[in-house]
Write a structure and sequence with these properties.
Largest sheet: none
Structural class: mainly alpha
Number of helices: 17
Mean pLDDT: 85
Distance between the termini: 39 Å
Low-confidence stretches: 335-344
Shape: globular
Number of strands: 0
Length: 399
């Protein structure tokens, strides 16, 4: 029976990652290239994380709907329609960043729904002894999908902008292509997803413990939240304004391909080595990424190779340190510490990173890139101190 899972596990998680990558990584460049200021762009992109947090809070009601196979199929079809509407919006005469935000927010809601249904379906369609292996396979194909969507899609859009000499037309065609690829997966899933029984919702923790875990995540991820969008702003902003002035193709290769590979490797190594006694070592790793950008501001990389090495290092440190969040996530998700694959981190990590992500563009404008990344790196000391003083890690471990 195991070979039949190859017919749906890779495609299910590959398909789900396409619109997620557009929302979390590519959307910022959409806003910047269509006239939004950095402050407005990061505010809008930060708000796109809210549906994930809302989905986490409403997971009990979503689980009550059951029939996860049908939910996946409906969500994928709706995402195809949303992507086509997004593509059409770039060609409207009345196009504005507000229209772009509204359609991306709709897509984000659908992505959160699809991710939840996929996870529950995954649990219901596989036996307990199969889940560990297939969870790794699902993560692998999710990461490959992110690399191809972030890397190749941006390269394609950049090439189309040169070809058509129209930014909006290039983005429209890129969204049409993404919708077409997702439609193929949707049609495949109409027939390939096997019937599966329902799975009981995981027990949830009390409100006080969930609030403590979310606060701890916020403190732990504060430096990463501040630089999540600002790192792309730094690469995209012209040299005359303090950035590196990279093209879409350079950002796609350095950040979207090499950077995502670095994150995936770091996550694999960190997840394999994770022990609770290594918590502080991984917490330090999480907060070293801003130091790489402090270095890049002081000594701007003059070649694509050097730029790629820097982004690889920053993302490797981020991926290696992310498992430090695991014990807080188990209380938010209601599962065991060992049962959380990295793709299930998204709702809670997004909720914790929402505020710093949304404010990062305004802070960059107020401080400049050099001071911003220096302040970001120094905030790690405050985050560690608060985590130690509150004893949040120990309390979450005991509850």
């Amino acid at each position: 029976m195991g070979w039949r899972h190859w017919l749906w596990v890779p495609s299910l998680f590959w398909a789900g990652e396409i619109p997620v990558t557009l929302i979390t990584f590519v959307a910022l460049l959409m806003f910047l290239q269509t006239g939004a200021s950095p402050a407005l762009a990061t505010l809008c992109c930060g708000c796109l994380f809210l549906p994930w947090a809302l989905g986490a809070l409403l997971k009990g009601k979503l689980a009550a709907l059951s029939r996860y196979r049908r939910q996946i199929q409906l969500a994928e079809l709706a995402m195809v329609v949303a992507l086509m509407l997004l593509a059409l919006s770039f060609t409207w005469r009345g196009f504005s960043p507000l229209w772009l935000f509204a359609l991306l927010l709709l897509l984000s809601l659908l992505c959160a729904w699809h991710q939840f249904a996929s996870r529950r379906y995954f649990l219901s369609a596989l036996r307990q002894q199969e889940r560990r292996l297939w969870r790794r396979i699902a993560m692998f194909f999710s990461q490959v999908s992110a690399i191809l969507t972030y890397g190749l899609a941006l390269m394609l859009v950049g090439a189309l902008q040169v070809l058509w000499r129209s930014i909006r037309l290039a983005w429209a065609q890129g969204c049409y292509i993404a919708a077409g690829v997702l439609l193929l997966f949707t049609l495949w899933h109409l027939f390939s997803l096997p019937a599966a029984g329902d799975v009981s919702p995981s027990p949830s923790r009390g409100g006080r413990h969930r609030l403590l875990a979310l606060l701890s995540l916020f403190l732990l991820l504060l430096p990463q939240g501040l630089m999540f969008f600002s790192r792309v702003l730094f690469l995209f902003t012209p040299v005359s304004s303090g950035g590196l002035g990279c093209t879409l193709q350079e950002i796609a290769f350095a950040q979207g391909a090499v950077g995502v590979i670095g994150f995936s490797l770091g996550l694999a190594v960190g997840g394999g080595l994770y022990r609770e006694r290594l918590f502080w070592a991984m917490a330090v790793s999480l907060c070293l990424s801003p130091c790489v950008y402090v270095f890049m501001v002081a000594l701007p990389p003059r070649s694509l190779l050097r730029l790629s090495l820097c982004t690889f290092t920053a993302q490797l440190l981020f991926g290696f340190g992310l498992p430090a969040c695991r014990q807080f996530l188990c209380h938010l998700g209601g599962g065991s510490r060992g049962g959380h694959a990295a793709h299930t981190y998204i709702p809670f990590v997004s909720a914790a990173m929402f505020l710093p992500c949304a404010l990062s563009g305004w802070l960059v404008g107020a401080l400049g890139f050099g001071a911003f990344f220096a302040v970001d790196a120094s905030l790690a000391l405050l985050s560690w101190l608060l985590l130690w003083l509150t004893g949040a890690r120990r309390k979450c471990h005991e509850c």
